[in-house]
UniProtKB/TrEMBL annotation:
InterPro entries: EF-hand-dom_pair, MINDY-3/4_CD, MINY3/4. It comes from the Eukaryota. The keyword Electron transport does not apply. This is ubiquitinyl hydrolase 1. Residues 1-47, 569-590 are annotated as: Disordered. Hydrolase that can remove 'Lys-48'-linked conjugated ubiquitin from proteins. It comes from Trapa incisa. Belongs to the MINDY deubiquitinase family. FAM188 subfamily. It catalyses: Thiol-dependent hydrolysis of ester, thioester, amide, peptide and isopeptide bonds formed by the C-terminal Gly of ubiquitin (a 76-residue protein attached to proteins as an intracellular targeting signal).
Length: 617
């Protein structure tokens, strides 16, 4: 009977939380004269209802209390997921039911095994596991690069670079909204501002307060997780060794407390993963925002990068991740150096763990196909491998909504970005070039090989309204197929009046703009080396931020452009405006591998910078 009373009491408490009045289970027995004579059972019921009413009164009073964190804006109250086990009444705090030490749920043995095998494989080295369990999500302490996440271990750079790209989106283009104490959900996860409008971002991105940076980080994490969950679900993975201190009521853990809690903690197998992980699933965006704020110390700990990757994978769903991939038998963290695979980067950028960077799907015939990027993305991706002809990045990644790109090299990921959305606008030359390229690609059945049939070529000429001389058409078709490079050269030699790109003025399509490159890997900076008492101190370990001046000549080669503009200037005298002169007389071009990446987005680009060359390794 006591157990039944306790169950009834818990039911009454839960009803009071939901603002639903308790429904009587039975009618009161009446005496012959119509008066009520409460039985012992009814007396107990009345006592339960009084206790429930008192609990409700206490809860209504406690809801007026707001949880605040000094450096992060205050979100809406957090409501934990409903549990099948009633919580004791003294755990009803600030309007939600929670447990003291049990937050979320453990992974099942099967889930933990599948997750570990998917990420690391069955033959992972201890060194790779060490890399991935010793990288927190933290901003650089160096003033010049304080807006960037710093990386100390090799391996998780793909996770950090993708997250960094989203952080920059908020710091550059949504800095004013970060100042809102309680941003709207639509502002948090889906900014209403359109990148199609001309927007000049803030140039104070490297000099913002810690509070702004943390808000940008939390919003970026939430946006990525919900993107992985198709906009409906987000999963947050945390550590059960810390959950008793991260309960939404008293979140005052410092670095020393976390470091002590993580002492001796390692992950060497799926069973280790199962023991330490707890996961929470949400489908309300505002709740995710608060929970990320509460658990931020965990993500800043040495386990942070791995926990965020696991959160993204679970948000997508393990079955969906494996379905996205071309070869699900391979681990997502690649051997022998433990780098993040393209599938990890794509998952964080577009919400799907596809292995390819082209647009849409590539049909291989026989019901087989390869998956690429399904739609346009917020921030994009460029890779050195495209300049080496190993792949072709599609327009979804190459032309994202905001001018920010993750840069991939053979062994590292960095970030390239601009402060002005107009760098993505096509001028007359680029617009015509894109039109011709789209017409050619529509007839290319080689999977990006860059050649088409004679029949397809004739269709391209019609679609692009190009009128080549008959003898040139015959020459291009003589081998039975047409190669893009030869066709493109023919259009460059063809006058604009016939649908080509030849411009006698030499001024068609020029463009000058600034880009910034950020490499989060902390390296020695000899320029920042200090001296003490006449003796040199050890070089400063810091990320690197480089400003690049980019000029895009309008012709096939920069040399042709410079020759044409020089002759044009000599014939026209001082008639050119200041910007034309700036384009016509650039500094001697400099080269680094990042320039090759930039040229996959802006062909023929020449770059200049001050100081050390930007590094993508």
């Amino acid at each position: 009977m006591e157990d039944q009373e306790e169950d009834d009491l818990q039911m009454a408490l839960r009803m009071s939380i939901q603002h639903s009045p308790p429904v009587p289970k039975r009618s009161r027995r009446r005496d012959a004269d119509g008066s009520s004579a409460p039985s012992p059972e009814e007396s107990r019921r009345m006592q339960r209802e009084l206790m429930a009413a008192a609990a409700e009164k206490r809860m209504l009073a406690s809801r007026s209390i707001t949880v605040t964190t000094p450096s992060v804006s205050t979100p809406a109250p957090y409501h934990a997921e409903a549990s099948s086990t009633p919580a004791p009444k003294d755990n009803i705090i600030k309007g939600f039911v929670k447990t003291k030490k049990e937050v979320g749920r453990e992974l099942s043995t099967d889930e933990a095994y599948r997750l570990f095998l998917m990420v690391f494989g069955d033959d992972v080295s201890e060194g790779i596991l060490t890399q991935w369990t010793n990288q927190g999500i933290r901003f650089s302490l160096d003033q010049e690069t304080s807006m960037g996440l710093v990386q100390h271990e090799g391996g998780p750079c793909g996770v950090l670079a993708a997250l960094q790209a989203f952080i920059l989106k908020y710091l550059i283009f949504f800095l004013d909204e970060l100042n809102n104490a309680a941003p709207e959900v639509t502002q948090f996860f889906g900014p209403r501002r359109s990148s199609r409008n001309q927007i000049q971002g803030s140039d104070e991105f490297f000099n913002v307060s810690e509070g702004f940076k943390l808000r940008a980080l939390i919003r970026s994490m939430g946006e990525i997780l919900f993107s992985c969950g198709s906009g409906n679900t987000a999963v947050i993975a945390t550590l059960n060794v810390l959950n008793h201190d991260i309960d939404g009521e008293n979140n005052n853990m410092d670095d020393d407390t976390i470091a002590k809690a993580l002492e001796g903690l390692s992950i060497k197998s799926a069973s280790d993963l199962q023991k330490i992980l707890r996961v929470e699933t949400f489908n309300v965006q505002a709740i995710v925002y608060q929970r990320l704020q509460e658990t931020l110390p965990i993500f800043q700990s040495r386990m942070g990068a791995m926990l965020f990757l696991i959160s993204a994978l679970l948000s997508r769903g393990l079955d969906a991740v494996q379905s996205d991939r071309d070869d699900p038998s391979l681990p997502l963290v690649t051997a022998p150096f433990g780098h993040a695979s393209q599938e990890i980067v794509n998952l964080l950028l577009c919400g799907e763990a596809v292995a390819n960077v082209f647009d849409g799907r590539m049909d291989l015939g026989g019901g087989m196909f390869l998956k690429g990027i399904p739609s346009n993305v917020e921030v994009g991706f460029l890779t050195l491998l495209e300049s080496l002809n190993f792949c072709k990045v599609g327009q979804h990644l190459k032309c994202p909504k905001w001018p920010i790109w993750v840069i991939g090299s053979e062994s590292h990921y960095t970030v390239l970005f601009a402060l002005d959305t107009t760098v993505q606008e096509e001028n007359e030359f680029e617009e015509r070039e894109s039109q011709i390229r789209r017409a050619f690609d529509a007839q290319d059945q080689s999977g990006g090989g860059g050649f088409i049939s004679v029949e397809g070529f004739n269709q391209v000429l019609r679609d692009a309204n190009i009128r080549l001389p008959p003898e040139r058409v015959d020459s291009l078709c003589s081998s039975g197929f047409i190669v893009w490079s030869e066709f493109w050269q023919a259009t460059l030699d063809l006058d604009r009046s016939f649908g080509g790109l030849k411009d006698s003025t030499g001024l068609m399509g020029k463009k000058v703009f600034d880009l910034y490159h950020f490499n989060g890997m902390a390296k020695s900076d000899l320029n920042g080396q200090a001296t003490l008492g006449g003796n040199s101190c050890p070089p400063v370990q810091r990320p690197r931020l480089t400003k690049l001046r980019v000029a895009v000549p309008p012709r096939w080669t920069p040399e042709e452009f410079l020759a044409d503009t020089a002759s044009t200037l000599s014939s026209t005298g001082a008639g050119q405006d200041a910007k034309d002169a700036e384009v016509a007389k650039p500094e001697p071009p400099q080269h680094a591998p990042v320039v090759d990446c930039i040229r996959t987005r802006w062909p023929r680009a020449v770059c200049n910078w001050v100081g050390n060359p930007p590094s993508i390794v």
